[in-house]
């Protein structure tokens, strides 16, 4: 294993834990000439690499290039190996984190206009609501399909609050509240 200073170890370890192995921000107290010297030595060893910063993604800047662009620092595979981390492990962990983030923020279900589901939602949003018989008549579905749509799709998948009341002469009337 490569002999690293405490500062180098901190920079590489922190970068290994960040998305895309970005090494910035540097540790507190490391600034100016000391930061430049430490980073230059790490670049010479191949542990850090200076790359164009993506300003749209708000990548932290190491230095400005003068033309409205800047650079940032990333930990290389050699830098990961220097602190005893296999690059494949880091890439796998990053992929797992990205997958977990996508799963935690699923895209809400969208409603297409002109479908039978949209027709039923419109019926249930009326002040008078709709009975299963009215839904069956409007969609040509069977009663169990209409009830399944209400309990499965509208309530569980779309998260709509569908209530029912018994009314004289109509039976159970369903409404979206």
Automatic annotation (TrEMBL):
This is DUF3489 domain-containing protein. The lineage of its organism: Bacteria, Pseudomonadati, Pseudomonadota, Alphaproteobacteria, Rhodobacterales. Pfam families: DUF3489.
